[in-house]
Design goal:
Blueprint lengths: L10 E2 L2 E2 L6 H18 L7 E2 L8 H8 L12 H23 L3 E3 L9 E4 L4 E4 L2 E5 L9 E8 L1 H10 L1 H4 L1 H14 L3 E8 L5 E7 L2 H20 L13 H4 L4 H5 L4
Parallel strand pairs: 3-6, 8-9
Antiparallel strand pairs: 1-2, 4-7, 5-6, 7-8, 9-10
Helix pairs in contact: 1-3, 2-7, 6-7
């Protein structure tokens, strides 16, 4: 007997429409649900993180400080949570490689916590990846802040070509804030290519003017949040590229989005 594969026959590319999804889809669904549940049980930050101060849109920072729910369909998915987790694994590898090469890289306090700082009554905080206090003679004066990012190939290549300040200004700002409050004169930025495991290293000097501007910006965001005010958008049109990818675009632009 021939099977009718026309539309409406009960088959979809040879598989009955009422058949369960493929095994991989089912397993990934369970994993992502567990990761999402775990994230939902975490206490929201009660402070503005130093890693976010360099975000170019101050209004987005206001939404983040308020813990505003993202637009429908813009929630962080399980796949993104897996990417975050993989980033920590790549960071652990980079730490191991640097230590094997003779770098005295400190990542935790004697009590086991991360090195960090807080200011503005604890409402601005940051936790650093590490500090290199000694190592091979490579032309750097120790100690230096160490910041690590694991990037996909295209993002890594752009960073290696342009430098972190031009390619990843949020990361650049993050390091400037860290250096300012940790009393460090420069940083070593390490980017790992997740596809090839190539490493890009860049020496980033401390820029006091940039750090001061970012610190002032953080205070402005907190003052606006306290007053219940929304700071200006970064753009005059919702089709601006940063707005198109913003998880609060619909809320921010309303009917004009």
């Amino acid at each position: 007997m021939l099977i009718d594969l026309n539309h409406g026959s009960g088959f979809n590319y040879g598989r009955p429409t009422d058949a369960p999804p493929p095994l991989g889809v089912r397993i990934n669904g369970v994993i992502d649900a567990a990761l999402t549940f775990e994230r939902g049980g975490q206490r929201p930050r009660a402070y503005l993180g130093a890693s976010r101060i360099g975000e170019p849109c101050s209004r987005r920072l206001i939404y983040e400080v308020f813990h505003t729910p993202p637009d429908p369909g813009k929630e962080i998915e399980g796949r993104t949570l897996r990417i975050f987790a993989a980033g920590h694994v790549f960071e652990d590898l980079a730490i191991r490689w640097l230590r094997q090469a003779g770098f005295d890289l400190r990542t935790h306090t004697p009590q086991g916590g991360q090195f960090g700082f807080e200011t503005a009554g604890g409402r601005i905080r940051g936790h650093i990846d590490g500090v290199i206090v000694g190592g091979p003679d490579i032309g750097l004066a120790w100690p230096v802040l160490w910041e690590h990012k694991a990037l996909k190939a295209s993002s890594w290549s752009d960073t290696a070509r342009k430098g972190v300040q031009a390619s990843k200004p949020v990361y650049f700002g993050q390091m400037q804030i860290y250096m300012a409050y940790m009393g460090l004169g420069s940083a070593l930025f390490t980017a790992l290519n997740k596809d090839t495991c190539e490493l890009y290293h860049e020496h980033v000097p401390f820029d006091p003017a940039t750090a001061q501007a970012l610190s002032d910006k953080a205070v402005d965001v907190l003052l606006a949040a306290d007053a219940g005010d929304l700071l200006p958008r970064i753009a005059s049109s919702s089709d601006f590229f940063l707005c198109r990818f913003c998880p609060y675009a619909t809320r921010c632009w309303g009917d004009r989005a």
